[in-house]
Amino acid sequence: MKFETLKMAEGLNNEFVIATYYMKSEKEPDLYDWVKLVAADQSAGTWTHVEGETPEVIALYGAKVIGVYPMSDGISCIARVAFPIANFPAYMAMVISTVAGNVLAQDGIRLVDIEFPEVMLEQFTGPLMGVSGIRELLGIKERPLVGAILKPCIGVPPEASAAGAAKAALGGADVIKDDELLSDPAYSPMIDRVKTVMAHLKEVGKDKSTLYAVNITGQNVIERAKAAIDAGANSIMVNYNALGWAATEDLVRFLKKENIKIPIFGHCAGAGAYYRSANNGMSAALSCGKLPRLIGMDMPLVYPDTGRFGTTTDELVETHSALSTPMKSIEAAFTTVAGGVHPGSIEYLMNLLGNETILMAGGGIYGHPEGAVSGAKALLQAIEAVMEEVPVVEAAKNHEELDQALKFWS
Prior knowledge:
Elements: E1 16-24, H1 31-41, H2 55-61, E2 64-70, E3 76-84, H3 92-99, E4 109-115, H4 118-121, H5 130-138, E5 145-149, H6 158-171, E6 175-177, H7 190-203, E7 211-215, H8 221-230, E8 235-239, H9 240-243, H10 245-257, E9 264-267, H11 272-275, E10 281-282, H12 284-294, E11 299-302, H13 313-324, E12 335-338, H14 346-353, E13 357-361, H15 363-366, H16 372-387, H17 392-395, H18 400-408
Parallel strand pairs: 4-10, 5-6, 5-13, 6-7, 7-8, 8-9, 9-11, 11-12, 12-13
Antiparallel strand pairs: 1-3, 1-4, 2-3
């Protein structure tokens, strides 16, 4: 690698996005040359010199290698590459195309993080309501929110979903969402479902204090969002990975332009393809945390480290940090932990992550031996016990629903 291809981060202005990669290869003869090739491939160069590739073009629009940090094994490194934002807009589809495009097709390259300059952060919407907005809307100041995933997830008519939502709300659920598998099937049309669920919530006096995130994932998502809101939805849900970064961001930008503030639940369906490999793909903190937050997910789903989805404890904590810690003008999002959560896991999760979370259960509420009302009550009782610094097993002695849950799920 020639000297002139290296730059120092302190020598760059705020017109660069900095990508950090973990790179490992037993075939590449020189780590520095490999990083240089990645920088060229993803900007103004390629694997060989081409006509028109002038020093001036490379200087203005070429990516800059600002750090190569070899590891002791001699075949891996951490690399930091700065990409000029003159090459792409503050639009996630093009950000990902630039820093995670062809490069992630190579063996042994994992995108760990992306650092954005403030001038670009200001152009992303971030969550429209975020943690503070949702807390104000629901009137819940400090504790984690209780979340419920409607079960059975598919195969039932709107009336069944509505009855399940009402039961969870009566038990204390603050946020209720469709399963990611349920969108707009013939047996449960989206509009019929949102009208029926909201009517049931109103009947039990919970339509103002409980959010129902109806899954609007599908064609013409902006039109679907408008239709759901017109039908009475007080929250919406999208499978942002499956729907696409661009379509999801377009939806949030539309809502912001129209001054429509509605909480958006973001399901990470398909994210395992990003984070499950140790040597390839994209970190969980990035794919399930920072990037969904930037495109406007108020309540992004994150798998717990105690579940079956391969998230490590470190990945869970890092993702929570990416969603909740300050990021200039970008609002914090609720880390929504779901996937095998039940009352017996609440104490652990709260001690690990704190209170800025939504602790969400499907089977952990609807599988309670006494039904969904008791299931939601048990989850809330566990949360309140931790808030009062009482061990959950001690609190169970005074709460039948919690005691039943702990015994049922050990």
